[in-house]
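pinging the channel bc i need a second pair of eyes. not urgent but kinda urgent?? the chain im working w is below, pasted from the shared doc
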Amino acid sequence: MTDRHERIRYLDELKGLAAFLVVLGHLVTAKQEYKGIYNFIYSFHMPLFMFVCGVTAALSFGNKGKWNYLGKRFLNIMVPYLSWCFLIPVISALLQGGGIDWREEFESVFVTNTAYWFLPTLYGLIVSYMLYVGIKEFVRKKAGKEGLSVQLPAWCATAALFLILYLLTRYQLFRDMIGYMIPFSLAVLYAENSWVKGLFHKKHIILLCALCYVALLPQFDFDHASVGTSLRRMFLGMYMTVMLLYLFADCKLPGVLRKTLAFWGKYTLLIYILHAVMMRWSSPLEHMLTGRVMTFVWYCLLSGIICSLCCIVGMGLSHVPVVRILCLGKGNRR
């Protein structure tokens, strides 16, 4: 197994891979000739991202105070989220002309959770993690137990609470949180229990996950929205996450690849937020090559270019303290 430094490094690499796949997935969306690749990407890229964020949350929390931790994570996630939700419409209006429908923008942020939905969902999952920690500590004091016998009931109670909140309010954010609580909670268990982490890195478990993934993928169609599709995606996402954890933590990969993914992983927030804008600007470049294979190769290169440009923007913004806090989050200083 790896030490703390290596563990954090490969988590950054996996975050970078997930961000790259988001861009590539959006490039091939609605292109029927890449339907198989589209389903492949969407079968795991967001569950992978939420898993990595869950591990990071558990490792970074340690024994810090809950409110202090939530405050710092609010600065890291929600302040940039709210800033960009304001800035992107303003920038788009200035570049393209026309007005801004602020009522629609308000609804997308606070009602439908469609504006960069993954950021409030991630923060909501961090809130759920703090609730889980509180329930776990309470049960441990009352019952005097440790390990999964406390952790699993605590996560079940946390999930039940947010399910009740969703049923009472029908608020989309709670629905998104419930959907990604599976990879996030498994990530916390992975970080908290050395034997669970060891289980994720056993070769026979990797093989079993690969077989299950191959068997289940042909039945997955991301465009077919249903509860069954969502559950299938979570299982596929966890199977692929286990395989990728083994690949990045226990196997030797080209150094250039690892450094590139780690670079992207440090600025995933900006990649997720800005890539759609950059895709619009780069749309004339989409058909640089002809042929199905060569076009896909170009899409991969273009995705990498967009990721790198977003990171360069992030590096530039990080030099101005106020801008760094508002647009990157205080914890993203590099």
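so DSSP finds 15 helices and no strands in the chain. and The two ends are 27 Å apart (CA to CA). — does that match what u expected or am i reading it wrong
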